[in-house]
Amino acid sequence: MLSELTSGQRQAALIFLALVACVGLFVAGFGGADPIAAHGWLVLGVALISAFAVLTRFHDPEPVADRSGSYYDAPVKAGIILAMVWAVLAMFVGDWVAWLLVDPELTFSEPWASFGRLRPVHTTGVIFGFGGNALIATSFYVVQRTCRVRLAGHLSPLFVLWGYNLFCLLAVTGYLWGINQSKEYAEPEWYADLWLVIVWVAYFVLYLRTLARRKEPHIYVANWYYLAFILVVAVLHIVNGLALPLSWAQAKSYSLFSGVQDAMTQWWYGHNAVAFFLTAGFLGMLYYYLPKRAERPIYSYRLSIISFWGITFFYMWAGSHHLHYTALPQWVQTLGMTFSVMLLVPSWASAGNALMTLNGAWHKVRDDATLRFMFVAAVFYGLSTFEGSFMAIRPVNALSHYTDWTVGHVHAGALGWVAMITFGAIYASVPWLWKQKTMWSPRLVEVHFWLALAGTLIYVFAMWNSGIIQGLMWRTYNESGTLAYSFVDSLEAMHPYYIARAVGGLFFLVGTLVGCYNIWMTIRASRAAAVLEGDHPAPRPALETGS
Amino acid sequence: MAVEERDPLSGYKTTGHEWNGIKELNTPVPRPVFVFLIAAFLFSVGYWLLMPAWPTGQSYTKGLLGFDQRDQVARDVAAAAAQRAAWSRALEYTPFDVALADPALMTRVRDTAPALFGDNCAMCHGQSGEGGPGFPNLRDGAWLWGGTPDEIAETMRVGVNADHADTRVSQMPAFGRDQMLPQEDVRAVIDYVRSLSSERPVAPSARLVRGAEVFANTCAACHGVTGEGSQAVGAPNLTDGAWLYGGDRDSVHQSVWGGRHGQMPAWEGRLSTAERRLLTLYLLDLGRDQP
After folding, report:
1. Mean pLDDT of the A468-473 span
2. How confident is the model at residue A536 (pLDDT cuts 50, 70, 90)?
3. Are A103 and A178 members of one domain?
4. What is the pLDDT of residue A95?
5. Segment A352-385, tens digit of pLDDT
6. Burial of A155: CB neighbours in 10 Å, binned 0-12, 13-18, 19+
7. Given CA atoms A388, A392, A397, A401 in this order, what sign does their dihedral have?
8. Is the pLDDT reported for residue A546 higher than 70?
9. Closest CA relative to residue A172, chosen from A123, A135, A242
10. Residue A545 confidence (pLDDT)
């Protein structure tokens, strides 16, 4: 990975890592007994290990003088591997917390293993660790191919990837030690948040500069989505993270918002994290890998435009549907609900655009599990956006809110849509990147597909049942006009569904492990022999003659 | 200029651009997309007209229906209370013995109490009041603080060692830890206490005699001369085999050596009088089922 850096860049990397190490040491020293000190040591350790890695490659031969004749794929490869590592870790923790809900004793009386600490490790691990790395990696891949230009920088892509993973590491270790600012999907404390801002701005600048250097006259749809993802996530993260730390040497901070404003800001963030992280980013992925793999043109460019602007415009309003029937003024709930309903149209337009693109390639969907991953992803995208708009309707929400239905909805999106499109994209890119004709074992891709699909369906059906039963039990009155069930009664009724959910999760996890093995073997095969020539930003004859 | 091609399969033209092999068709937006977009928008406009919707600086549009979720909750709560009033008011004044003999009222109790008990009491006293180590069984008829309806209702109202002004106070001193008794005497009195409820006859020994002496001098003040307990100070009956903290040697040792200080929250202020009386009836009713 470092062999594409000039010796000057290697020096710059070392100086930068030395600086980071100093900051780590500083925090460790001044942190004293505060938990932030442990994070100081962690940063120091990571910086030293990284510096050591740079040093071992320090005297490698210089790269060719003009690197613009090739794509910069080292960060893409690293990002894909990191995504899979996070996937295994975080899905394992996810299944653990699923079993924890079946049997509360599985904490082994360790504070770090309590539900409240493990749960954010799972969510951060899958969303930011797995999803985020996959987005960064594929966005680097896609922007280069669709702009026919090498990434605009050599250190900054590495910095983005490295810094982002350091952020994820700070986040999940912090939860285990009890560092958590108690905002869902925004749990890390102020210093990790600040670090992410730096990383994210670097990502944004890198992306813009690469786009600016493009050799294609137009910007491809996938890049609109990736760019929307990067830009809006920055805005959301900064606003929701505004907080005042107790001091520079303490982990704890207090949010600038309080009460219902805090709740509204949090869910404006939370819902748009779904929108721009888990939807826009992955739509970018879909718009590149699906037509590429199906070898079909996008069904309708006009539909792409309508859905892009529809999604970006409507989503921004929808967050308040997370706070129906609360202290939030009702007019805000109304806006959240109505915009969520309108949102369905562009969402389905996107899903439809993807599915119609497959016209003429259905035999490939049948035969090729990689493309089938993407097809199923588009179907689940359609399903879960419908479900989301439906659940945003106030009377429906009165039943679904606070129940497992929400959990089922999230996983229809997370497993069915986000993870499926990611696996599809990864199975498509790994052979391209490691110069192989196919994955090491297309059969194992098939095995992974069925495990993932079965796991998702078991999970989602279990949670639908469980959630609806739960919601009904909580609102059932007996003839005397009093509640028929206690909370514990509803918990007992959930038990079989919790077992089913944990089994479904296990299927999904095993599928991911199969995927890791397959990717690993593909990479090993590439060490033995590169079968294909890599692609590179060659001038395209058709274009040279035109415009 | 861009080169537009015709896609043989769909018959539509491409936009003429290409990105690494990906092309786009210039297919017109299917009509249903616009139809549904307009329908969703009209639905929203209708909803905005009827319901509180748009901010207007200091206020917001109230909507033609004049609907407000807070009023709605207040109305729903009042309506439900009115529906229950017929029997729940009766609970407040009907004497317990009359209520227990009133099948209609007891049906309400059996309908209502399990969920109330499940949400407020079960985490300590067990799903059906069967208790657990440190938390008394509420259906076995062995009462620490008295088993008449009024006594039970009072325990519930003020709690035990609770933050209520009238709380019942219960204190089993830590005879060993606080060095009120020598180690030998602690062991002897433990043997003696355990012998009180032993089903098999216990062979007399010097240690038991010593234990009985210690008991008479130190323990009888609270637990009674024969160990039958005292409901005035919440000291358990030590002869009935119904243990609060456990009757094995270790548990009894823990009780005598380290003392006990059970805590039961006060429910006045958390549950209404009617609800507390309802739960009292429920416990009495549970006790009636016991053999």
Report:
1. 97
2. confident
3. yes
4. 98
5. 999 999 999 999 999 999 999 999 999 999 999 9
6. middle
7. positive
8. no
9. A123
10. 38
Same domain for B75 and B204? no
Q: Which of B7, B20, B130 to mutate to test the interface with A (most CBs of A within 10 A)?
A: B20
* DSSP per-residue letters across A90-145: HHHHHHHHHHHHH-GGGGTT-GGGSHHHHHHHHHHIIIIIIIIHHHHHHHHHHHHH
Q: Indicate the number of domains in chain B.
A: 3
Residues A17 and A149 in one domain: no
Q: Which of A143, A300, A339, A492 to mutate to test the interface with B (most CBs of B within 10 A)?
A: A300
- Residue A110 belongs to a domain: yes
CB within 8 Å: A359 and B15: no
Place of tokens 């008394």: B136
The domain that contains A211 carries what CATH number?
1.20.210.10
Q: How many domains does chain A have?
A: 2
Contact B37 A342 (CB under 8 A): yes
Torsion sign (Cα): A415, A418, A421, A426: negative
A21, A161: one domain:
no
Q: A392 and A289, same structural domain?
A: yes
Query: Domain for residue A547, yes or no?
Result: no
Backbone angles phi, psi at A437, to 5 degrees: -70, -45
pLDDT digits (tens, 9 = 90+) for A109-127: 999 999 999 999 999 999 9
Cβ within 8 Å, pair A303-B29: yes
- Is the residue at A67 inside a domain? no
CATH number at residue B116: 1.10.760.10
Angle at B51 between CA A405 and CA B79, to 5 degrees: 70
C-alpha count within 13 angstroms, C-beta hemisphere, residue A437:
3
DSSP assigned state of A324: T
| A543 lies in some domain | no
Residue A125 CB coordination number (10 Å): 25
Euclidean distance between CA atoms A296 and A286, whole angstroms: 13
Assess whether B130 and B149 both reside in one domain. Answer: yes
Write out the residue range of the structural domain in which residue A133 sits. Answer: 73-533
Residues B7-41 have pLDDT tens digits of: 988 889 999 899 999 999 999 999 999 999 999 99
* Residues A453, A416: Cα–Cα separation, whole Å: 8
Q: Which residue has the tokens 């094995």?
A: B248
Q: Give the separation between CA A174 and CA B56, rounded to whole angstroms.
A: 43
- Examine the domain organization and report whether B95 and B237 are in the same domain: no
CA distance B105 to A480: 10
**Which residue of A307, A334, A394 to mutate against B (max B Cβ within 10 Å)?**
A334
* Per-residue CA distances from B144 to A436, B229, B234, B243 (Å): 78, 8, 5, 11
- ipTM of the complex model: 0.90
- CA nearest to A542 within chain B: B3
Taking CA A420 as the corner, what is the angle to CA A418 and CA A422, rounded to the nearest 5 degrees?
70
Residue B83 sits in the same domain as residue B153:
yes
Q: What residues of B are in contact with residue A542 (Cβ under 8 Å)? A: 3, 18
- Residues B199 and B232 grouped into a single domain: yes
The chain B residue lying nearest A347, using CA atoms, is: B33
